[in-house]
């Protein structure tokens, strides 16, 4: 899969980012009481950039990387938005842990939802373990 980077987003997509994140936060607030009991770990709001790496068909993750906007994070996973559909389920996610350090996780896409009016997709991923260099 060919990834598009933040720098390649159209002006319309860049304007839509905050609207998409706000819309998803509002939807989450309505259903949080129901789902919070079912979650193993508490989710925290996390609007920031994380790295995304998807295998390029040869199972090489380092070939295709980009930054995406994250919405929330927990010990067991995170949510992010991206303006394209991702068909692979096994990905890697890099989470910033300091000014210049990123911790990479093997992850599995467990939920995807299209935000149709904004032409974005929201993804929920479960961390499967840290990537050991």
TrEMBL record:
Q: What's one Pfam family the UniProt record gives for this protein? A: PilZ
User: From the UniProt record, which GO molecular function terms apply?
Assistant: cyclic-di-GMP binding
Domain PilZ stretches: 38-128
Record-linked InterPro entries = PilZ_domain
Name of the protein this chain belongs to: PilZ domain-containing protein
């Amino acid at each position: 899969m060919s990834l598009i980077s933040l720098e390649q987003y159209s002006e319309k997509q860049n304007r839509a980012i905050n609207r998409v994140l706000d819309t998803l936060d509002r939807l989450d607030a309505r259903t949080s009481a129901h789902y919070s009991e079912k979650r193993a770990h508490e989710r925290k709001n996390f609007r920031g950039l994380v790295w995304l790496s998807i295998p390029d068909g040869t199972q090489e993750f380092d070939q295709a990387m980009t930054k995406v906007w994250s919405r929330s994070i927990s010990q067991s996973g995170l949510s992010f938005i991206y303006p394209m559909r991702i068909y692979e389920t096994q990905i890697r996610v890099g989470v910033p842990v300091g000014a210049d350090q990123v911790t990479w996780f093997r992850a599995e896409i467990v939920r995807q939802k299209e935000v149709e009016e904004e032409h974005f997709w929201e993804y929920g991923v479960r961390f499967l373990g840290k990537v050991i260099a």
